[in-house]
Amino acid sequence: MPRQPRIHAPGLFHHVMARGIEGCEIFRDKTDRENFLDRLSDLLAQPNAPRLYAWALLSNHLHLLLQPTDTALSTMMRCLLTGHAVRFNLRHNRQGHLFQNRYKSLVVDEETYFLELVRYIHLNPVRAGAVESLEELERYPYAGHGALVGQRMRVRQEVEEVLSRFSVKPGRAVAAYRDFIADGIGQGQRSELGHAHGVNQTGGGGDARILGGKAFTAAVLARQKLEKSEGKITVEDILTQVSVCTGVAVAEILGAGRSRRASAARAQFFDRAQKEAGATLTELGRMSGRTHVAVIKAIRKRRAIGDGTKVT
């Protein structure tokens, strides 16, 4: 059964997860984690970037609780994960895919699941054995929990928004949040928060991309259907996204340059434009001054190489 496209729902919350291929490590040391957070910080600082509410980095997977705005979440995640894979592979002298398939994203019913997901994500380091206690979790630099209890904020994070759910007074809010986190220790893995099982989940609305009940699921799907009918992404949109993501100018992507960065960005543009916007080989060749044979060679080479050697 073909996989369904992810749901882009600006303003709604998305639980985003990415895992290493075959369970491999995506962070081997402090430098890997710091490089990833630097990249995430840069992306969150861009205009119309998603807002981050909770996050955790583990050795072989990561969790983010994001609220996208006008910028498609997939654009940011592509830049984030591709960039990390390139840097990781160069540092550790490896090739090929780093992440398992596509990242996973669940659209979340805020009323039911927002605070539960904040707790679930921030307790991940405890359950994975990365830290041994809640006191140690507060000092753990690779999750968003510390920022919520007054530690240094490592990335741009909506601390006040989360704490306001507990109290309007900062001191009381932090104390209530700490109690809320502590109450979650005895709840077990709460695997349903990381996997929407559609009609099989408790109160499930029937779509594995949505964590919420039937009414919420129906509303999200109706909105998605309306947006799809109003228009789809264009070749020009993709060209702009690739330019922003890779740091390669549009003129260079479409030009004759043969540098590694330009070639990789050009191949990414050709591949995405064909798959996402339905562009023909002839159309892409005309845009870039190339034959359709040159275009298809670039696409095939990109797909053969895989995520691990894309350049951003």
Automatic annotation (TrEMBL):
<feature type="domain" description="Transposase IS200-like">
    <location>
        <begin position="9"/>
        <end position="124"/>
    </location>
</feature>
<dbReference type="InterPro" id="IPR036515">
    <property type="entry name" value="Transposase_17_sf"/>
</dbReference>
<protein>
    <recommendedName>
        <fullName>Transposase IS200-like domain-containing protein</fullName>
    </recommendedName>
</protein>
<feature type="domain" description="Chromosomal replication initiator DnaA C-terminal">
    <location>
        <begin position="234"/>
        <end position="302"/>
    </location>
</feature>
<dbReference type="GO" id="GO:0005524">
    <property type="term" value="F:ATP binding"/>
</dbReference>
<dbReference type="GO" id="GO:0006313">
    <property type="term" value="P:DNA transposition"/>
</dbReference>
<dbReference type="InterPro" id="IPR010921">
    <property type="entry name" value="Trp_repressor/repl_initiator"/>
</dbReference>
<dbReference type="GO" id="GO:0006270">
    <property type="term" value="P:DNA replication initiation"/>
</dbReference>
<dbReference type="GO" id="GO:0006275">
    <property type="term" value="P:regulation of DNA replication"/>
</dbReference>
<dbReference type="InterPro" id="IPR002686">
    <property type="entry name" value="Transposase_17"/>
</dbReference>
<dbReference type="InterPro" id="IPR013159">
    <property type="entry name" value="DnaA_C"/>
</dbReference>
<dbReference type="Pfam" id="PF01797">
    <property type="entry name" value="Y1_Tnp"/>
</dbReference>
<dbReference type="GO" id="GO:0004803">
    <property type="term" value="F:transposase activity"/>
</dbReference>
<dbReference type="GO" id="GO:0043565">
    <property type="term" value="F:sequence-specific DNA binding"/>
</dbReference>
